[in-house]
Design a protein that fits this description.
The protein is of the alpha+beta class. It has one helix and five strands, in the order H-E-E-E-E-E.
Length: 68
């Protein structure tokens, strides 16, 4: 059986959406409640400067949406 490639793991989160609030800023992925075994390097996401207040993680593909 062939091992999954990085693109396969990214596609798992293409439909995952996480709603965050101002108290969650500065936003980073993975968030603190994610399991360590599936974590990628922590990356800070500039969601507060995004025009539509959304930002997709470049590692895992999770879409974050900031509530006003």
């Amino acid at each position: 059986m062939k091992a999954p490639e990085l693109k396969d793991y990214k596609s798992l989160n293409d439909t995952r959406e996480v709603v965050v609030k101002a108290k969650d800023l500065p936003l980073h992925c993975p968030m603190d409640d994610n399991a360590l075994w599936c974590a990628h390097p922590r990356v800070f996401l500039p969601i507060d400067t995004s025009a539509d207040k959304t930002y997709r993680c470049p590692y895992c593909g999770t879409l974050y949406r900031l509530l006003n």
